[in-house]
Amino acid sequence: MEQVTPATKTRLQRFFGSDVWYSFMRSPVAIISAIVTIGMILAAIFAPWIAPNNPFDLASISIMDGNLPPAWESAGDSRFLLGTDDQGRGVLSTILYGARISLIVGFFSVIFSMVVGIALGLISGYAGGRTDALIMRIADIQLSFPAILIALLVDGVARGVLPSELHTDISIYVLIFAIGISGWVQYARTVRGSTLVEKNKEYVQAARVIGIRPLTILRRHILPNVMGPVMVIATIHLAIAIITEATLSFLGVGVPPTTPSLGTLIRIGNEYLFSGDWWITIFPGITLVVLVLAVNLLGDWMRDALNPKLR
């Protein structure tokens, strides 16, 4: 029988034997947060199959079903467990599809921020000099403005430059770009600090001596060693991106009203809140709070688990 040695272990085996997995299994909060986060992501992915009705299918929506209360109330309808909104769309279905849009915007804006921030951070930390000063001064200027204000500015400029007939079709792409460009600074500053430390270590100096190109050194040697803090920032930034999307949609500058994101549902329901139709805004609001809280708690655990000083 072949003996399994550390050299022959797969990456999966090494992960399940690592301190990070041990820390995860010892943290009930992390386990619950991961279950909730993964469950909501899967529910959003499989929304077309598990949603009671399709809020995008105009043929199946009737305005006569608008503003119905949840099914357990006397005026409720068993077809709509959590009631309907003003257009007759089931709130449960719109939440599933809305979470899908919020997660898509959140994930892709975080990926965009990561790519821009990591690239600029590596260049800034490795090149130094005027290049470092220029990138960091731009980052300092952006940090003086709230992220939501930058996202509003980018979204407003895009809407002013692009033709009005394209606003609905590209609204999600503009939203991803606006949120993504407002969040790259944290990645850049973190990666720059780690790069300043790594580039003076012996393995990087040895790579320079044997003639390896700077781009290869950054990609093969420095980048893998700075990804730990980046993953922590990305997890927490995902929650911020989802909140930013909801805020922009609530203000009416995010996705269009015909696209049921969580922020759009909360904005629509807010108009009917004082008339007694509380379910239109309460249930999407609860979904948003639970999703962001679970992601934040997962990010807090990851920050502690990857911090060598706390092991």
Automatic annotation (TrEMBL):
Residue ranges of domain ABC transmembrane type-1 in the record: 99-299
Compartments where located: Cell membrane
InterPro entries membership: BP-dependent_transpt_permease, MetI-like, MetI-like_sf, OppC_N
Membrane topology: Multi-pass membrane protein
GO cellular component, one term: plasma membrane
GO biological process: transmembrane transport
Keywords annotated in UniProt: Cell membrane, Membrane, Transmembrane, Transmembrane helix, Transport
Pfam families: BPD_transp_1, OppC_N
Iron-sulfur keyword on record: no
Residues that span the membrane, as ranges: 29-51, 101-126, 138-158, 170-187, 222-243, 278-299
UniProt keyword Nucleotide-binding present: no
Main location per the UniProt record: membrane
Domain of life: Bacteria
Family to which this protein belongs: Belongs to the binding-protein-dependent transport system permease family.
Protein name: ABC transporter permease subunit
Organism listed in the record: Sneathiella litorea
